[in-house]
Amino acid sequence: MREILVIGSGIAGMTAAIMCAEQGMHVTLVSPFPSERSQSVMAAGGINAVLKNNDQGDSVESHIEDTINGGCGIAGRDSVEGLCRGAEDIIGILEKCGAVFTRTPGGKIATRNFGGQSHKRTCYCGTSTGKQIVTALVMETRRFESQGLIERKLWHDFHSALIKDGVCYGALLYDEASRSLEPIYADAVIVATGGQNAIFGKTTGSTQCDGYTAGRLFMQGAELKNLEFIQYHPTTIETPQKRMLVSEAARGEGGRLFYINDGERIYFMEDKYGSRGNLMTRDVVSREIYEAGSQVYLDVSFLDSKLIDERLPEIKDICSKYIGLDISKEPVPVSPSVHFFMGGLAVHDDHQTNIRNLYAVGECASKYHGANRLGGNSLLAAIYSGATAAEAINKAETGEEIIRPDLKDYIDAEVSALEKSMASMSSFPVMYVRDMLAENMNRDLGIVRDEESLDQGIKEIDYYLSICDQIKYDSSVLPYFNYSLKGILVLARAVMTSAKERRESRGAHYRSDFPNADDNQAYSSIISYDDGKYNVRLDKENAYES
Amino acid sequence: MKVNILRQQSPFSEPYWESFIYDGPEDNTVAGLLDYINYNDDIVNTDGEKTGRIAWECSCLQSVCGSCAMVINGRPSLACETFLRDLKGDEISIRPLSKFPVISDLVVDRASIFESLKASNAYIEEFVSEERGDHELQYASAKCLKCGLCLEVCPNYRKGRKFFGATFANDCYLIYLRSNVMSKDIRKEYVSHFGNACSKSLSCMDVCPAGIPLLSEIAAMNRSKR
Ligand SMILES: Cc1cc2nc3c(=O)[nH]c(=O)nc-3n(C[C@H](O)[C@H](O)[C@H](O)COP(=O)(O)OP(=O)(O)OC[C@H]3O[C@@H](n4cnc5c(N)ncnc54)[C@H](O)[C@@H]3O)c2cc1C
Ligand code: FES
Q1: Which of A91, A110, A145, A433 gives a 20 to 30 Å CA spacing to A124?
Q2: A112, A282, A373, A506: which is the annotated catalytic residue?
Q3: What integer pLDDT is reported at residue A420 of this predicted model?
Q4: Are residues B102 and B146 in the same domain?
Q5: pLDDT tens-digit map of A6-55
């Protein structure tokens, strides 16, 4: 029986695990915490799919066009076509495992408007779409756990991949219970560790998504793609513990953005872009808010309070609980905040990286969203990518016995490096370096960037990297936080470098020194790592697209 | 403000109370308070001694993932939605959930919640082709965070015993109504691991951060005679 190792148990990881198990493979599903704690549960708004019986005149073709246009022309057309054509089946799969979709009075799956889309095609489960999908997938995963085909490993963190000569044979995991490293061998490894939130400190998403796995794999030879495209969500609120998302559903249901000038409300999005102005793509709305230069408000208070209670209860609840504001009475002060990463591990159409038998799925992979993601497309991509990788792995079965190389030297070296580090002590707190990094990233890689700020950012990260190997073990935090620091810093350096090298403005990447798009740069960027050197190229040969 | 925290280095060491002074913003949550204490270069207790950072689990920081469940001033709560302004007195006590083994400080291992669901084959497998029963109640049921607060207050729940508690009953309800193939079996599991032993103190409903109306689910299960 083929052995598959899935790292990360959010929506993408669970989907990959379920689909592999369904095809008779044995899966080890690794994450420090259960799926209920993953970022996937936070997705509120919905998942895009053109359903055959839609009465909006929508078509898969227009979903494809919206996705390509939203991504500013650099996402691979074939991949996007696959994603959009597969969407209806995905909704079918979720329905089959019991996800509680909101339905119309006629019993059809209900849809809502989302930004950058020509039709109402965002299917949703009340205001907790991600959570409802996670609940359904957890149950489906459990079905295969009961059959012995999926085995969950909790309290385990990714340490590094077992790679030799461009082929992946498994991974080293850190076991928090035994406090030691453990090698797990597999015929294929699927990485599903989510976004790169921690390089920016606290984002709208989960604190568990730290980007370490992508950073470490990059150091081990995996290429990364489109890192400069970081989505700022236009409408977030300031709370004592983080910036919290006010879902696009608010604008989908009619919410309006304005600022106040001389006592008058200026509906700047509608003034500039017409009646659908509030639902422009997120990159555009965020930049307009940034350029408005004064406090922007999101207003839904004019909507029928019954509609607010029925369709936007989660937003009402968040605003009331965390900022003491009743959205049915007052407009909400909002501003943009880091939310989603279009960039990540570069993958081919089958979601394999440039390292054989190493796959990446979900938000940690870069594939469908180009320079800007449409709301509702990432849950779809998380599931589609998980299913695609599983199918590819199944097809790649040759029946040949894989001869594993001897990886003992690598494993021994990593085990002793970790032990040595844990035996040393440092007065330099690891978390302090992480906090400083986040401060720099937010300052130097904002909605608007320029060469000077990016050079400054690179200089700062290089300094942290130069002291990183001298920082010994910080016993006040878990070993994971110690060993993950370097991978996180290297990833941040790669993000900064990619942003510096794209000398144009496109989607979520806006350079004040190069404010226009340049057709010669209308390609994905690929970055590779060679012993401390960061090499960026534009993928003009479509190395990652069929 | 004085903050007393029940700490424990590892699963095998003894717990002990340690106190800290919190001088951060008043408009904060307990999650924000823990972050604030941990943020400093050195963290120092009220005896002026340097000490390790306080381990606690978090992920979403907006009360949808259940990570940060702990006992705050005697009440099982989520740290990220408990505001300091709502706590009485000028001292705060924080301890880990007591129904689960401690990993370190406020981090506990809630594997037992998932083990009982796995042991009873709690899955839907195939959705009934058309939804039956109360949609809103099923939606609420699928929002269960598996945080364990309900098990912490439950007078009947003890790890390793036959009674699996409210998290289990909640999932049974969802499966019972939505599964084409598992309905019958799950009802049997429900009866033997919940229905017969729940003493209906319903304190679980008071502490549920997702506001799940368990009583309605129990009523629906008890009405069913499949
Ligand atoms: C507030 C919010 C609202 C959103 N709303 C929507 C929406 O309405 N529609 C939409 O399409 N998208 C939405 N998104 C985006 C979407 O939720 C995510 O892109 C998607 O859920 C990512 O799923 P994933 O499985 O790739 O990763 P995640 O759900 O982040 O899972 C990552 C997994 O990897 C594990 N992991 C991380 N690091 C390690 C490690 N080192 N070792 C082992 N395991 C590790 C984690 O524990 C977790 O299990 C939203 C995001 C946020 C933050
Ligand atoms: S951190 Fe998710 S519930 Fe508190």
Answers
A1: A145
A2: A282
A3: 84
A4: no
A5: 999 999 999 999 999 999 999 999 999 999 999 999 999 999 999 998 87
Whether residue A162 has its Cβ less than 6 Å from ligand 1: no
Residues of A (438-477) whose Cβ lies below 8 Å from B: 475-477
Domain boundaries, given as residue ranges, for chain A: 3-229+342-395, 236-337, 424-515
Residues B116 and B72 in one domain: no
pLDDT, tens digit, 9 for 90 and up, residues A146-165: 999 999 999 999 999 999 99
Whether A282 is a known active-site residue: answer yes
Q: Which CATH class is domain A3-229+342-395?
A: alpha beta
Q: Which residues in chain A (290-319) have CB-CB distances under 8 A to chain B?
A: 318
Contact B142 A155 (CB under 8 A): no
A100-109: long-range contacts (C-beta < 8 A, 24 or more apart)?
Answer: A100/A125, A100/A126, A100/A132, A100/A135, A100/A136, A100/B135, A100/B138, A100/B139, A100/B142, A100/B178, A101/A125, A101/A132, A102/A126, A103/B131, A103/B135, A107/B130, A107/B131, A108/A51, A108/A53, A109/A51
Does residue B117 share a domain with residue B94? Answer: no
Same domain, B93 and B135: no
Find the CATH number of the domain harbouring B40.
3.10.20.30
User: Which of B56, B74, B108 is a domain's end point?
Assistant: B108
Architecture of domain A236-337: Alpha-Beta Complex (3.90)
Contact A33 B81 (CB under 8 A): no
B92 and B123 fall within a common domain: no
Residue A400 has pLDDT above 80, yes or no: no
Lowest mean pLDDT among A105-109, A161-165, A226-230, A259-263: A105-109
**Based on the domain organization, do B37 and B141 belong to the same domain?**
no
pTM here?
Answer: 0.97
Task: Return mean pLDDT, chain A.
Answer: 95
- pLDDT-derived band at A427 (thresholds 50, 70, 90) equals low
Residues of chain B found within 8 Å of residue A146, distances taken between Cβ atoms: 118, 121, 123
Instruction: Check pLDDT > 60 for residue A288.
Output: yes
| Letter string b/e over residues A401-430, b meaning 16 or more CB atoms within 10 A of that residue's CB | eeeeeebeebbeebbeebeebeeeeeeebb
Q: What is the nearest CA distance from A94 to chain B, expressed in angstroms?
A: 9
- As a whole-number percent, the residues of chain B with pLDDT over 90 amount to 83
Q: What ipTM does this complex have?
A: 0.97
Cβ A132 under 6 angstroms from ligand 1 = no
Q: Give the number of domains in chain B.
A: 2
Residues in chain B closer than 8 A to A33 (CB atoms): 57, 59, 67
Nearest CA in chain A to B138: A100
User: Is the distance from the beta carbon of residue B78 to the nearest atom of ligand 2 less than 6 Å?
Assistant: yes
**CA distance linking residue B53 with residue A439, whole number of Å:** 21
What share of chain A has pLDDT > 90, as a percent? 87
Say which CATH number the domain at B193 has.
Answer: 1.10.1060.10
Pick the last residue of a domain from B59, B87, B108: B108
Between CA B135 and CA A125 the distance in angstroms is 11
Q: Are residues B90 and B117 in the same domain?
A: no
For A527, the 3-state DSSP assignment is: strand
CA A426 → CA A422, A432, A475, A482, B45, distances in Å?
Answer: 10, 12, 8, 11, 20
Residue type, A334: V
**What range does the domain containing B56 cover?**
2-108
